[in-house]
């Protein structure tokens, strides 16, 4: 069996692992990145009939506050952004549409809140922004809203916003501290949503470029099958053909894989706490059209059906061939819908109806659909019983964890980037401290 020695071995080549490998190799560390499939993990872009289908939208929320932007600056990534036009984001209210009140401009224009409720909502936003409203880890957002006797319209508004930002059909279960932490960031941003031109593929290519230019090694189609632990340290990970030894290890693989690899270790019982974790599931239904269907909005959310459509090609010029259009519909799945084929069919029909309503004639222009009935949009679903995995445990100090199932900031890929950024900082700081000592 081949044996190689590194400073840091990173297991898992999704956005968390690949960004960690880029940051550490950029700092002169000898790294190996091991991925069992293709790089990108859930963030992939597939070209079908000239349409760039992303496995999920490549929207980055609050990029001016984000860890991805820090990485972009630290690593000199060449990314081209297109920022979301806030006033083109609408709620479908049945008979009419209204602006999504996720900033002050939207708030003044929205038809969802009337009279005093607009001021009440503005008051909550202001309190969240200046940091007075922190929530309570033991209280769900629904309990919090009930206790504060928030008016029904404002309550509904806040839960709807949570639904679309946390990709969940059950926003009432989100812990109130997570909810307010998220909105504190979002309301401070000047750029609520942005798209990366060229999709996830462009971002992955940029990280790979940094790793390769710093002589980092990338092993795809290599699954880590086991780990060697001596005393309180992981000393090596093993694929079928190679043993990778290192001083530090980052595991950017989902909890069920971690439990398998660490079942004999001192952190087994810690990981057990995450055994029952439930991901956030969605159904997505993308359509590639040969001709654009013009619409006054680029994002439309139906709160009753819990579905939204984004006009991806409006923001990402590379998403559709010239003159064409790529639309993406996402429906949040409730717990009872995840394993029920009848529910999947029902949801698919609802999405088609929603397309009919807002993009009439789409069937005539359809070149290619892409449907995923059950997709993991985030590896953790925020509920009172589920919290992100810590990024390290004292029992194994040279082991670090990153991914969108870990404790971090923001939601979705920002959880992957923030946890990855933090573990890299920790590794670099610990090493600097050792050298200084
Ligand atoms: C429909 C949809 C829409 C989305 N929209 C957005 C959006 O608009 N904005 C946003 O920010 N995010 C979005 N996301 C979420 C985003 O895709 C994820 O948060 C992000 O890609 C997670 O990256 P990760 O590295 O944390 O995890 P993963 O991508 O799951 O990476 C884990 C990697 O580990 C590898 N692995 C597992 N076990 C092993 C092993 N034993 N050995 C080696 N490798 C292993 C896996 O193959 C995988 O590549 C969306 C996701 C979906 C599905």
- What count of structural domains? 3
Residue share in β-strands: 15-25%
Secondary-structure class: alpha/beta
Shape: globular
Mean model confidence by pLDDT: 90
Small molecules held by this entry: flavin-adenine dinucleotide
Straight-line N-to-C gap: 37 Å
SS field, number of helical segments: 14
Stretches where pLDDT falls below 50 for ≥5 residues?
A: none
The H-level CATH homologous superfamily of the largest domain, spelled out, is: FAD/NAD(P)-binding domain
The count of DSSP E runs of length 2 or more, i.e. the number of strands, is 19
Name given to the CATH architecture of the largest domain: 3-Layer(bba) Sandwich
Helix content: 25-40%
- What is CATH's topology name of the largest domain? FAD/NAD(P)-binding domain
How is the biggest beta sheet arranged? 7 strands, mixed
Rg over alpha carbons: 22 Å
What is the CATH domain class of the largest domain? Alpha Beta
Summarize the structure.
The chain is an alpha/beta fold and 437 residues long.
Provide a descriptive summary of the structure in words.
InterPro entries: Amino_oxidase, FAD/NAD-bd_sf, Flavin_amine_oxidase. Belongs to the carotenoid/retinoid oxidoreductase family. CrtN subfamily. Keywords: Oxidoreductase. With 437 residues, this protein is of the alpha/beta class. The chain folds into three domains: 2-50 and 60-79 and 198-277 and 384-436, FAD/NAD(P)-binding domain, CATH 3.50.50.60; 98-188, Guanine Nucleotide Dissociation Inhibitor, domain 1, CATH 1.10.405; 280-378, Alpha-Beta Plaits (2-Layer Sandwich), CATH 3.30.70. Helix content is 35%, strand content 24%. The protein is built from 14 helices and 19 strands. The chain has helices at 15-26, 67-75, 104-109, 116-129, 141-147, 152-165, 176-188, 199-213, 255-261, 268-272, 312-315, 341-358, 362-365, 413-436, and strands at residues 2-11, 31-34, 45-48, 51-54, 59-61, 81-83, 89-92, 97-99, 193-196, 217-219, 226-230, 233-238, 242-251, 280-289, 299-302, 307-311, 325-332, 366-378, 399-401. The strands form four sheets. Strands 1, 2, 10, 11, 12, 13 and 19 form a seven-stranded mixed β-sheet that branches. Helix 1 runs parallel beside helix 8, helix 1 (15-26) runs parallel beside helix 14 and helix 4 (116-129) packs across helix 6 (152-165). The longest helix is centred in the C-terminal third of the chain and has 24 residues, at 413-436. The model has no long low-confidence stretch (mean pLDDT 90). The structure holds flavin-adenine dinucleotide. Flavin-adenine dinucleotide is lined by residues 11-17, 34-37, 41-43, 55-60, 223-224, 252-254, 257, 282, 284, 375-378, 403-404, 412-413, 416. Residues 11-17, 34-37, 41-43, 55-60, 223-224, 252-254, 257, 282, 284, 375-378, 403-404, 412-413, 416 line the site of flavin-adenine dinucleotide.
């Amino acid at each position: 069996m081949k044996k190689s020695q590194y400073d840091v071995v990173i297991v898992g080549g999704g956005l968390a692992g690949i960004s960690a490998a880029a940051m550490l190799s950029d700092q002169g560390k000898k790294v190996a990145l091991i991925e069992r499939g293709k790089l990108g993990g859930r963030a992939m872009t597939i070209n079908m009939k000239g349409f760039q289908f992303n496995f999920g939208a490549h929207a980055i929320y609050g990029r001016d506050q984000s860890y991805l932007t820090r990485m972009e600056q630290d690593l000199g990534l060449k990314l081209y952004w297109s920022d979301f036009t806030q006033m083109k984001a609408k709620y479908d209210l049945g008979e009419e549409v209204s602006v999504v009140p996720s900033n002050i401009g939207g708030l003044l224009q929205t038809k969802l809140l009337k009279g005093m409720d607009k001021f009440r909502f503005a008051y909550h936003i202001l309190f969240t922004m200046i940091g007075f409203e922190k929530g309570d880890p033991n209280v769900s957002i629904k309990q919090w809203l009930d206790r504060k006797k928030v008016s029904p319209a404002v309550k509904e508004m806040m839960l709807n916003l949570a639904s679309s930002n946390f990709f969940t059909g059950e926003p009432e279960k989100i812990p109130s501290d997570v909810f307010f932490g998220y909105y504190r960031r979002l309301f401070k941003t000047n750029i609520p949503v942005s798209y990366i031109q060229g999709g996830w593929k462009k971002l992955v290519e940029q990280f790979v470029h940094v790793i390769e230019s710093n002589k980092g090694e990338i092993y795809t189609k290599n699954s880590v099958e086991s780990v060697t632990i001596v005393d309180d340290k992981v000393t090596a990970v093993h694929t079928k053909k190679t043993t990778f030894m290192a001083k530090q290890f980052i595991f950017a693989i989902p909890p069920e894989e971690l439990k398998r690899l660490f079942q004999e270790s001192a952190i087994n019982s810690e990981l057990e706490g995450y055994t029952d974790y439930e991901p956030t599931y969605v159904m997505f239904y993308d359509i590639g059209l040969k001709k654009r269907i013009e619409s006054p909005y680029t994002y439309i959310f139906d709160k009753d059906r819990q579905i939204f459509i984004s006009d991806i090609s409006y923001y990402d010029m590379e998403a559709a061939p010239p003159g064409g259009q790529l639309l993406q519909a996402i429906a949040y799945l409730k717990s009872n819908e995840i394993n029920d084929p009848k529910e999947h069919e029902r949801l698919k029909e609802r999405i088609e109806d929603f397309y009919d309503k807002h993009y009439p004639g789409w069937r005539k222009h359809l070149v290619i659909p892409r449907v995923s009935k059950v997709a993991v949009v985030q590896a953790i679903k925020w509920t009172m019983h589920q919290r992100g995995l810590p990024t390290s445990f004292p029992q194994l100090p040279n082991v670090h964890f990153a991914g969108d199932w870990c404790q971090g900031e923001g939601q979705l890929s920002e959880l992957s980037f923030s946890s990855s950024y933090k573990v890299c900082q920790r590794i670099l700081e610990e090493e600097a401290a050792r050298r200084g000592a």
